[in-house]
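Narrative summary of target 7.
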Amino acid sequence: MEYPDRKEKIIRYGATGLVLGGLLAVMVLLMLLQVLESEFTFRELASLHRRHRFLYLVDLLPFFGIIVGYLAGLQRYRHLNELVLRLHRESERKDEIRRFTRSLIAGDLNTSIEFGDGDSSLAETLNRLKDTLEKNRQMEQKRRLEERQRNWVSEGLATFGDLLRTHAMSPEPMAYAVISAMVKYLDANQGAIFMTRRRGEERFLQMIACHAYGRKKFPDKSIAWGEGLIGAAALEKKGYVTDQIPDGYLTITSGLGKANPDFLVIEPLVWNGEVFGIMEIASFKRMEEYKLQFIRRVAENIATTISTMESNLRTEQLLGETREQADQLARQEEKLRQQMDTLELTQREAAMQAEKFISFTNTVNHTLMRADYDTEGRLIYANTRFLKKMGYSGNREVEGKHISMFINEKDRAWFDTLWERLAGGGRHFEGYMKHETRLGQDLWTIATYTCMRRDDGSVEKILFLALDSTEQKKQSLDYEGQLEAIDRINARAIFTPDGKLQMSNPLFGKIFKYAENEMVQMKIFDFLGTADQERFGEIWERVVSGDPFQGQLKMHSRYEEELWFRATLLSVEDMYGEVEKVIFLASEITREKEMEMASRKQHEQLVAKEEELRLAGLDLRKKLEETGEKRRQEKLKFGNEVRQYRHVLNELPYPVITINNMGFVLFFNREAERIWGLKQEHVLGSKVEGLFHPDNDSGVVSGFADPARSKPAGIYKNQEVILPEGKALKRDLMLVLTDLKEERHFSLVLL
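Modeled conformation, tokenized:
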């Protein structure tokens, strides 16, 4: 911005003042003439001036305007001039800041900035910024230097690690490869490696590798232990770094007339407190600390490698001695070979058993109850699962206690005998075992007691392992009781889907007159006559397809005797939904059938001889009376058998409910009375739906209680039965269908 023109400003403002003053004077005179109603003439103006003297001052207004304009122009000039000066100073300061900033950007941190107007705060701030940048640059340079040094050390360690691994078989090649690479890597002049040797009990240092001035030198130097700098370093297990090399210390020269090195590094090769040698390096330049640290680390790696070599060498020597001894013992080895093979096999098996045992122990502690006892029966250890099942919170409650605290008093007699056998090293026990918990409850387990032996074969302790089988045992006992009750009155057998007999109860063999071993390979068709096998084959196919059979069957005993049964055939599926077996359950009705057939035959004879009977009226009436009496006696006998059958059902240990096809209760045994809490006389004749809760989810129970629904016979596993008061029972159900002449009866058995 240019500076303002002083003269131009004064003239412009003076002329403006003159014009404004003249205009003001003319306006005053015109206003006065108008007020006095005078004409604007020079004569009137002169007359006014004579009458009013102040008008002379009005005439001077243009001159006053010139003075005021002059002063205003001068003030305006000064103001503008000051603004221009300020702008110039600000522009110069910006230029200075721009120059300073460009210098900083260019990396010139030696520059500085000052302002001539006394504004030192901004200059100080910018100079502090420069100092901070300088400090950061120095720190970055230091960091980069340290990073380069670390990389240098890391690369060197990797390189020398590879060298040591490559030449790990022999010390001399390894030593020369390392020292030659070390001299080159450190940019040194010469270096040597001494190894510790022994001459009897005396130790000394033998040079095994030397590299100087880029060439391999052949070592021929030995130093006594503790002699000179190298011997002292070995004795004290401490390195030396010096630039005061004694005259004549270095015996190898360049041969080109160059001066000898003046910086020496001596580092012992120490590993696990043992000195394996000395590494010596000479250089013209003093080495930085990071290079010295690098030399120490490489020296430690060399010592480790030499230690490994010597160990391998000793191992080879031992192997050589072993081979020599093996040759000497060859004849004996042949005799002992078989024993060694057996021992080796035993050791492998023992190792495998040990691994399996460790895995087994870990698995046991997560899945099984475990406890350890000494031979006196005192508990040594119990895992968490054992404590939880037995009702204890920690080992402190049971450690040192006798095993008898877990055994019911009634079981002590046979258990004490078992324990004496185990404590004496006898055969282990495996089977069901009943324990008594802290609260006195029975805990059934599938348990094993095993002797853990010492090396001499004596019993160290007895290991107890078990699975909780309380619920399964209760169900098993209940199921066995039910089967026993059924087996007492029914022939029971289990067949494969192709009809092969798997098992049968004693009553089955007794009825068919077969010994148990004689029925091993028999099929169900072998118990049928030839004429009945085709019809039964159709029944069997339907049963295997899942359709149960209930009705009368004619079968044959071992001696071809006809046997009649009221039988039920049910198929049982496995976990994949395939038929696994077929259950045959039957009660013999041969006598009833014979009576029925005899009655039918007699009826046919009576019809055939009706004419004869009519002719022989008296004789016929007498015979009819005799026949009627006989039939009444047979009917009475049959009724007695039915009552006996009902009595047997009434004594069964599981509930039995029999209804007709209208849903009225016809039979309600004692076990049902106990379960439902109702008397038989209050239940008989009532609707069966009142015995079950309306929210029963089981289709078997709801179908049994509803007269309108079908009721397929069969055995149904794990059904939930809800009593009227809401109590739920988890039972297996068996539904049996009985067809009579007038109606059909259904029996529900809660197994």
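The chain has six domains: 6-99, 159-310, 330-365, 368-468, 485-588, 654-750.
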